[in-house]
Here is the input.
Amino acid sequence: MKASDLGPRLTKFRAELGKTCLIGVTKYSTLEDTLTAYEAGLYDLGENKVQDLTFKAQHFHEKDLDLIRWHFIGHLQSNKVKDLYKVPGLYAIHSVDSLKLLKELYKRESEFKGSSLKIFLQFNTSKEEEKSGFESLEELREAVDFCLSQKGSRITLHGLMTMGSIRESDFVAAAHHSFSELQGLKEVLLLSFKELLSLKLSMGMSQDYKIALSYGADYVRIGSALFGSGHS
Ligand SMILES: *Cc1c(COP(=O)(O)O)cnc(C)c1O
Here is the structure.
């Protein structure tokens, strides 16, 4: 990425997104490009590997770049929770994809050093085998119940997350399907859990974020369209 490209790209996204939060996904970006994003005022950054996140977050922490809000967006193994909890500036985990992981996150809460942590339950709307996530409303209800029973915790259920299809050919149709399903799940959950009134939706990546916006995305996660070398 040329640093001079980022400013105009950010301006374009901000105008399109309105109050939807832009998460800059830096998983393919160098530390230098990640710092450039921060300097351009993009404080919500996402990574999908605990090790990469640890490396970058440590650097930010040493430089006192403490406006950073790190979003973890990748598959998380239960045995990596303790490492993730050491990450300075950890703000949210978008990829809580099983009840087992959810329980582990609460169980180890004392190892989390921040003042609060937002979590999203990942739902597998596209049903692609390589994707993880909850797969039925019943599973989701059980997870929501569990979160709501954890009174006084610093870990709070913040929203639902999904990904569209990763297959290229039918991504438009697949995105409509996935994002409308997630929006529908939110509505259904709201009927039984009034506490979820402000439940957020994390959905949309470079290729399908416009579709996600039309279904009420509160967070979009953008990598290549911001940091890639090509024109998007
Ligand atoms: C990589 C990734 C993104 C960003 O993808 P782009 O297509 O580069 O915008 C968003 N969400 C998740 C979960 C990812 O792994």
User: Anything to note?
Assistant: Residues 25, 27, 48, 73, 163, 205-207, 221-225 surround pyridoxal-5'-phosphate (CB under 6 Å). The first helix runs from residue 3 to 17.
